[in-house]
Amino acid sequence: MRNGSNRYIIHVSWGFGGGVGTVLANLIEYQLAAGYRVGVIYPVRENKYDVSFLSRFSGEIDCYPVEMRHNRVRQLRLSQIIGLPIKRLYRQVCLQNPGLDIVIHAHNTIAVGLLRDISKLPLLVTLHGINASKGVTSQWVTQRIAKRLIRSGFKMNAVSHQTTEYYNSVLGTTEIIPILNGTRVKNNTVSRSQRPPSEKFRIGYLAYLTDAKGWRHLFDAYASLDEQYKARINLTFAGIGPEGEVSALQNSIRQHGLEGSVRYIGYVENAGDTLVPSLDLVVLPSASEGLPLTLVEAIAHGVPILATRVGGIPEVLIEGVTGYFIERNPIDIAEKIRILHDDERLYESLSNNARDLYTNKFTVERMAKEYSRVYDSILMCFKQ
What we know:
By secondary structure, this protein is an alpha/beta fold.
C-alpha cells in the first residue's frame, strides 16, 4: 500500500464487537502503518467491546462519538433506521482538516440509516453479512438502504463472493463488488503432530450463542460421542449471547455431567491471537453467514474447520481440503469430529492446506490494498 500521509479514512460503525470489530481493527492497524490518518464515528453505548476496541487505538485514531437519545429497545431500533449523522461530522472534519483526502467507510447499512442526508459524500459501504437470521424487518431495512445507496451512485462491497451475488441478485444490480475479509497471524500454532500424544483434541465454537449459530447442534453432537472420545476431546464455547441461551448451555453441561470436558468461557478478547491457536478444530453449524472471520482466523493458524454450506463459508472451507461441510444435526457433526480425531494423516493434510489458503487469499495486506484501490476510485469521482 502506498504512503497515505494525505489520506484520512473515517470508519463508521454501529459497534465494535464480533467479526466486524475484528476486521475493522485489522484494517485500521494497517492503515495507520501505511501513514493514513484514521477516525471512527460510532454511537455511545458503553459496552465492554466498544471500550476495548477504542482503548486499543487510544491516541492513534480520532473518535467521533454520537450520543443516542433513546435507550429502550424500540427507540434504539428507530435510531438505527435513522442512522448516524455522517454528513454533519464529515463537514466538521473537512473544516478542521483542509487539504486532506477524506473517505467515509461505513460498515453495514445500519451505520448509514434510511433517513439521513448522505448526498455528496465520498462514501464506501461494506456489507458484512446477509441478516437472514435477524428477521424480515431487518432484511427489509437493509435492502431499502442498499437500494438508496445504489441509486445515489455510492460504492458498495460485500465480504464474500456469495454475499455479493446475493445482494446483487436481490437488489437487481451488478454494482456491489467482493472484497474478502482478511486477518493477520501474531501467534504461531503448535501443530497437533508436535504435541505430546497425551494432550486432548481441542474443539472450539467461537460465535454468538444463539440457535441461528447452531451451538445446540454442536453440544448435542459432543454429548452423543462414546465415552472413549469424550475422554480424549475437549469442547470450548466462546462468545456472548442472550442470558437465556447462556443459561441453557450451562445447564446442559451440568445435566450431562460434562463439567470436566466442556466449558463456556464467554467473550474472549483477541480470540484470533489467543484462543484459536490453541485449538485443533473449529466448528460453526450456522444457519446464515457473511464470511465468518473466526473461520479465516482458524485457517490462518492451520486449524481445520467444520461448518455449514451457507453464505461466504465456501470461500474458506474447501471440502476435503481445509475441512468438511456439516449439516445442522448432531449425527453428522459427531461423525465428522470422529473422522478428524482418528485420522492424523488426513488432519495434517487439512492443516497444511488451510495455512496455504490463508496465505494466498485472506491476508490483511491483500484486503487493505483492495480497499485502498476503491478509496482511490471514490476520491477520483468525488473530485470530478
